[in-house]
């Protein structure tokens, strides 16, 4: 059986694909199915190591991004998309997969066009409360539609839509505090806060944190994933701020956290502060109280909606960026950290929201449909 994954462009699209691929490989082995041949079609591989480790063959194919504002780049990207569609038709005819799994976003569009042309079955997954344009279009011919939030169901045909949650890689489904304090050189007595800027980083969050840093470090220690583009500036500024101060060893900035470091950081954190992308589902699975700071609606049409959907479960507090200040940020951190009963309720709500079997559910449906088409 041949399965083609389409998507990418960000970790929020790429890593759920990896999570589903992991489960497909495991199911095929455990149930003695013929080994699935897996392909990933996107403009770039995003993480070559993850593809290699999961026996996924990368198929390069251009795709243009459609911006929600006027830009001359839309013209250039329109041309990229046209070329990508032509190439995808040729490449998918050559591979002729039994099924295509689309993760949404501009990177999946050329492959889904080819799937429609060749009548190849399609399964799509929507991570957000408000679906993107590609998934809305693909839902008209998709065999099955998986969604992460119940709010997204209103946008799709009811008879072929199921809420599965967001697929999470096996290596991040459990957390491990063992060795974390030694690894990060932290004090086991001081409460730890984990701040996640996402794969692209979060410049505004970084600025607010730096303005609050001295105050926060008098009570907490912080592990901060800044994003690769921000690590130099954040490290330089924090070093100057904390130079010769008593708490400089309580702050640990990193550009990214690998899987083991993330498991350890999440294991010791009593509070997680994050954007409102797919990381929400990891935080929920970890059972951690959180403060969610969505990207403004002018930049991302769905993060605000995602954040408030999650907050309605009681698992998090939402701080909107336009209202954020060092004082508001610090006060909210202190309020949550001072109230153990609140943190307990948030932990329970997070666990109730989590969907640890999302990747398995989607993988089994892909295999079922793929085997049917193969015959």
Descriptive report:
With 375 residues, this protein is an alpha/beta fold. The chain has 2 domains: 2-168 and 356-374, Rossmann fold, CATH 3.40.50; 174-353, Rossmann fold (3-Layer(aba) Sandwich), CATH 3.40.50. The protein has helices at residues 11-30, 48-53, 73-95, 109-118, 133-138, 180-184, 203-217, 231-242, 259-268, 279-286, 303-311, 326-337, 340-353, 358-374, and strands at residues 2-6, 37-42, 56-60, 99-102, 122-126, 144-147, 161-163, 192-196, 221-225, 251-254, 269-274, 290-292, 316-318. The protein has a 7-stranded parallel sheet, sandwiched between helices. Helix 3 crosses helix 4 (109-118), helix 7 packs parallel to helix 8 and helix 7 (203-217) crosses helix 12 (326-337). The termini are close together.
Could you name the key traits of this structure?
375 residues, alpha/beta, 2 domains, six-stranded parallel beta sheet, 14 helices, 45% helix, 15% strand
Extended strand count:
13
Order of helices and strands: EHEHEHEHEHEEHEHEHEHEHEHEHHH
Strand order of the largest sheet: 3-2-1-4-5-6-7
The main β sheet shows up as: 7 strands, parallel
Number of domains: 2
Mean pLDDT: 92
The H-level CATH homologous superfamily of the largest domain, spelled out, is Glycogen Phosphorylase B
Helix-strand category: alpha/beta
CA-to-CA gap between the ends?
A: 10 Å
* Unreliable spans: none
Which CATH class of the largest domain applies here?
Answer: Alpha Beta
CATH topology of the largest domain: the name is Rossmann fold
Shape by Cα distribution: elongated
The helix fraction, in percent, is 40-55%
Task: Tell me the Rg in angstroms.
Answer: 21 Å
């Amino acid at each position: 059986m041949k399965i083609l994954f389409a998507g990418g462009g960000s970790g929020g699209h790429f890593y759920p694909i990896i999570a589903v691929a992991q489960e497909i490989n495991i199911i095929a082995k455990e149930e003695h199915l013929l080994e699935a041949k897996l392909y990933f079609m996107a403009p770039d591989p995003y993480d070559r190591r993850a593809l290699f480790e999961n026996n996924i063959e990368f198929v390069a194919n251009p795709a243009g991004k459609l911006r929600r504002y006027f830009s001359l780049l839309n013209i250039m990207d329109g041309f990229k998309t046209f070329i990508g569609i032509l190439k995808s038709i040729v490449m998918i005819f050559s591979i002729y997969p039994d099924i295509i799994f689309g993760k949404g976003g501009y990177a999946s569009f050329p492959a889904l066009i080819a799937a429609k042309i060749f009548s190849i079955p399609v399964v799509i997954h929507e991570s957000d409360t408000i679906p993107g344009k590609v998934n809305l279009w693909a839902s008209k011919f998709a065999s099955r539609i998986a969604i992460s939030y119940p709010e997204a169901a209103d946008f799709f045909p009811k008879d072929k839509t199921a809420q599965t949650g967001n697929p999470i890689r096996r290596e991040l489904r459990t957390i491990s505090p063992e060795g974390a304090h030694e690894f990060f050189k932290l004090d086991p007595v001081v409460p730890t806060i984990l701040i996640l800027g996402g794969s692209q980083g979060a410049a505004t969050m970084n600025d607010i944190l730096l303005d609050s840093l001295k105050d926060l470090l008098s009570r907490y220690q912080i592990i901060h994933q800044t994003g690769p583009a921000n690590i130099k500036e954040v490290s330089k500024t924090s070093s100057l701020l904390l130079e010769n101060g008593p708490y400089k060893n309580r702050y640990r900035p990193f550009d990214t956290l690998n899987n083991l470091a993330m498991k350890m950081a999440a294991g010791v954190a009593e509070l997680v502060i994050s954007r409102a992308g797919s990381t929400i589902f990891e935080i929920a699975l970890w059972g951690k109280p959180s403060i969610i700071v969505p990207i403004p609606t002018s930049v991302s049409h769905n993060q605000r909606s995602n954040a408030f959907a999650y907050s309605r479960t009681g698992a998090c507090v939402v701080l909107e960026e336009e209202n954020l200040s060092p004082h508001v940020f610090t006060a909210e951190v202190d309020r949550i950290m001072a109230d153990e009963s609140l943190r307990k309720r948030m932990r329970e709500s997070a666990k109730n929201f989590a969907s640890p079997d999302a990747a398995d559910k989607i993988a089994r449906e892909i295999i079922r449909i793929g085997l049917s088409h193969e015959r």
